[in-house]
Amino acid sequence: MLTSAPSRPGLLHAYRLLPLLLLSSLAGWGQDTTGTAYQAFVVEGANWIVSVGAEQDDDRVYTLTGDTLIHDTLYKKLYQRTLYRDVEFTGDLQPPYSVGESSLLAVVREDSVQRKVIGKVYAGTSPTLSGDTLIHDFSARPGDTLKGFAYEAEYIDFQVETVFRYGADRLVWTGKFADELVEGVGSMVYGPFGLRNLALAEGYRALVNYCIGSDAACSIVSTTSLREKPSVRPVAVYP
Fold it and tell me: In whole angstroms, what is the distance from residue 114 CA to residue 94 CA?
């Protein structure tokens, strides 16, 4: 069956649409196609409960609270507190989490458009904060280099997927490293900083809990002694 050729007005209309289609394609190039809203890292009242090792004094609670202005740039302060546990502890830490006094570990800020977390960190025993350092790059996609502060290496071979974690849909980076990087949270092994290439025991994660809220809401209780263990166990909640 023969069909007639398109009319000249139809061709002209199609030609006029080509530039618009091209611009539309270019505008979408590089946009996030995951369909999920960005989950911020720098959040007031964010708490990371981390079991770092077998030694009793290695466990930590990291907390973001309070702001500070440095050279006209606003940062949020990240504190660390020793997490005390029983001597006979052999499994996962359970609330309530008994903590000692806090000390400033870093100040951090976030570029939510670029999905990057920047910070100034106390390195080791240094009494001064470092210059601005990349803490996490939550914009990394397959083919990019995944890197940040306290990472064991710069990773290229990794995957990204959306997982419901800690009360929200978050991007999660996995790869040949035996760790997971979670958007807005950090490392499932090391907490707010770092990404480690560790051989983990099956089912074990050093990040015991992540909770946004007051100490009371997150089952964190101040104590001055390892033996002082509160009896009330409030339930941690997520906003």
Answer: 36
